[in-house]
Specification:
The structure is a single chain. With about 220 residues, this protein is α+β, with helices and mostly antiparallel strands. The protein folds into two domains: about 80 residues, DNA polymerase, domain 1; about 120 residues, Cytidine Deaminase, domain 2, CATH 3.40.140. It is about 50% helix and about 15% strand. The protein has nine helices and five strands. Helix 8 packs parallel to helix 9. The radius of gyration is 22 Å and the shape is elongated.
Length: about 220
């Protein structure tokens, strides 16, 4: 049987993309277009719909594991391509806002932090941000993966980095893969221990943020620091 020719449909979709942008498309159409560049000469509309039916949303498709995507019918190459999008999004945002001459705007810290955890949602991670005396960012990176049971190691690393970068102040953040941004007793104890350890080397802990999904809770605002 002769394969259907989808070239006309693709041409129309690409023309609409150029004229109207991605906002003009539904979720399955966005995924369909993205798959053009990984699956040539096939009907990616049906593939996109099947993926959305299986995983529930566009973001869930991107967040799915390599194995889950392959079990859904994609090749390893195609699955790896989709898995790039959360990481590329995070790197794009980091690069866009990473300006060493910019004084860090603490009022926008929650927005910045939520963006930093894109692609890190499945495991608990600790983010450390260090600022100099003028409030400029001198260090920002994930420093630990796993829960706070290894807090002793994490605190020593935080103090060591603060000294190495001659930091004046710092804030930390970590995510709750459970989806609830509510601070636990362990979070509060960890925060107090970090604050005490940093104060011994002359560094001020400004805040500790808990991230879950797209929510971000400040322990300082909750009166827990």
């Amino acid at each position: 049987m002769q394969k259907a020719d989808h070239s006309g449909h693709r041409a129309r979709m690409k023309k609409k993309l150029l004229e109207q942008g991605l906002d003009a498309f539904e979720a399955h159409e966005v995924l369909e277009i993205l798959l053009y560049y990984a699956i040539p000469q096939r009907n990616t509309n049906d593939i996109a719909k099947n993926l959305l039916d299986k995983f529930g949303s566009l973001s869930a498709v991107f967040d799915a594991s390599l194995e889950a995507l392959m079990n859904a019918g994609l090749t390893q190459h195609q699955a790896q391509y989709l898995r790039l999008f959360p990481d590329v999004t995070r790197l794009y945002l980091m690069d866009k806002y990473d300006n060493p001459d910019r004084v860090f705007d603490l009022t926008r810290a929650p927005e910045y932090i939520v963006d930093r955890f894109i692609g890190y949602e499945k495991e608990e991670n600790i983010l450390l941000v260090l600022l100099d005396k003028k409030g400029k960012e001198v260090f920002s990176s994930m420093i630990s993966t796993g829960d706070l049971d290894s807090a002793g190691i994490s605190i020593r690393k935080i103090v060591s980095l603060a000294l190495n970068y001659t930091a004046y102040s710092a804030f930390i953040a970590h995510n709750h893969p459970s989806g609830l941004a509510l601070p636990s007793k362990e979070d509060i104890y960890f925060t107090r221990d970090v604050k005490k350890a940093l104060s011994l080397v002359g560094v001020s802990l400004l805040d500790h943020y808990i991230v879950a999904d797209h929510d971000c809770v400040s322990l300082a605002e909750c009166g827990m620091i």
